Structures
1.
Amino acid sequence: MLRRRLKARDSDTGDEHSVNSYLGQRQALSRNISSLHPLQRLYIPGSAPFLDAVDTVLLADHPENVTLWLPSALPSALRDTQCVTGLPQLEYRLRYAQATNALHDIRNFRRLTRILVLKTQSHIANTQRTATRARGLFDKVKLKLTQAISTYRVSRKAIESLSPNEEFGPWKGTLLELQDSDIRGPGREGSENSESRFVQSWIWTTASQVSASADDTDLQAALRVEWCKAQERARRYEEEKELIVEEMRRTLVYLEWNAQEWESSMTSPSTDDSNIDSTTLAGVAAYANKQADIRRRMSKIFIDDWFHLLNEHFPNLPWLKKHTCPPATKRNRLISNVKRYHSYTDTSQTDVNYDEVVSDDVDDPDGAIAYSLVDVLDHSE
């Protein structure tokens, strides 16, 4: 851990106290590595040539860059013959514990990061002091998270070298390769997919020994929050389904009401009959009849497109039973309906033959439905 902490530091810059502390940590690490070499020569005789080649200057100035030459760093053939019996398995147990602890720390620091983000978003302060303190806290958490990530990757690499075929125990199902894209959560980030398509990172679902503990109150609290959010999302989706069906019903009711309004305007014009000749009244009646027919044909198109789907998922809708079941045909797109009924639409830009998809029971010589649907498309754009 001390080696990775020293590697995470960019340079020797800083105030005098931090630089002296950094140099003291290097000296302590150098002494620890030097005291480890006699034990390695005793328990790992095959590491003697590698230990003799260690640069003493590098060991004194930058001990974090010196290879430790543990059993995981040795070649497989040399490790099996030049190590004390059971030593590779002991390192495997050590590395496995390091990896699970590091994975637990990654989850803790990710939870802490999310808490800090939410807190800064809800408690906005414009003072320089608050911003500086928040930035310093973020940097500390980021540094610890980086160290935990490095520890996990180094430990997993050592485990992969010691037990590639799980000779010392199963680990491939729980200690997966940690990519940068896996370091996210808990929950969905702002730039990720929608809630319905969101997939949680494996670091929150893997069954490691540390995270599966019943005493991990932080993890249990985070899982309860995610469970509650998932339940509310499922209920919201169910509510949206009901609202969509209700909107369909209201659309049909509105179209029928609007058609009746146009029909009533044929018999009761808003102006005085004495000032309008018979030809104009006939034109007004024809136009009102055309508009009423447009609404009823639009209603029929909607029913033909959605009847089978609604009847399959909502078989007990009372308002749906008032409509007759149309023949089972593939539902066409809205633009297909426009081109199907609009005799002036240019079909040279598509390969679809819309004459083949026109049903026999549809007759719209005036292209009334096409004009209405074109208006809908124009307003929607």
2.
Amino acid sequence: MTRIARIVKSNSHVDYVGRVIDPLDASEPPTAEDYGFAQFVSMPLEGAGGEVVGVVYDTQLVNPEYGSLGPRLSPREEIAVLSPDYLNEQGVLVGILLLGWRAPAGDGAASGRGEFQHGVPRRVLPVGQDVYAMPDEGVREFHRGEDGSVGLRYFSQVLAHAGTFALPVVEAVIEQLERDCPAQDRQRLCVLKRSLAWQRTLGQMRL
């Protein structure tokens, strides 16, 4: 998995902020596609085992130069050599909404791997926690229920905590899941997508 960020703060028990890895942190930093909107992420739990699963639902740029009216004493190329930490103050922050977790290996699965659960994780993520982009197979496994069907049991959680991005996040997730799922699941996801489109339309009409 590609390491994309480190946790720097939280806004609530399920709403975290990560700083995207840059060239001063790693020789091969992640690309913009690795931490795009609705990208699923995994945060391994050190010591206890298992992992917490979340989704990128917001992005912010950090730029201390914004609003500065002072003169530029050196070009950017020289600052990169003389004071690289100054450039490192600029960066990208991603908002991560926690959606569930996987229990440690051996807890609840005959295969020796814990089962994914949707909901609010009990564990608190520490500052400095590594955040990894979740591969497509991991995303599919996270959404697969005990009977093998696709489910978004965290739906109400997203609506409660993602604010104005709630509907766009769910719609983007549905588009990801529709690519590789059985016809029956695709039909159910299509019904949910139509419902979300109707809710969006009603919201615009109220405005």
3.
Amino acid sequence: MKNILFYAVLTGICWGMYGDSLARARGALQSPFKPYLMIGVAYLVWAILGGAVGMMVRGESFTFTGPGVRWGFIAGTLGAWGALTLTMAMVSGGARQPHIVMATVFGSAVTVAALVAWFQAQHASPGLWFGIGLILVGVVVTSYYTPHKVPPAPKAQASVPLANTLPGMQ
């Protein structure tokens, strides 16, 4: 159990910093899709290296089955689509408030995971529905109280006397 929580917390730390990193990349590259392309490169590099090293350390074979390949591809597709839709959320105004986007993403991810488990099991205690309600409240409260940078005020333009702008009044 100790390792499960350790790796789950590490995942939360990485994904918790994901939105801010995405917003920074978008600003530095002046494009919402250049960072998405780099996300794809990073996924490719780390997935291949991490998967291969992990398999070698565990002494696993490099033999793959049809259902395993299919479900692995589905999982990868869902991850990539999640990154794309997160990019779209940032493009649609979320870059100004990434803390709201990320709280919504992770609150909804926990809820969907619970609903998928409920659908597969076909039963749930009232605690599940109470927990989902708490997630909704948590997303709203967290989003509202998360500190964020205030955008700089627009620079005031120097006032020009009206007489200097009208012809013949100089």
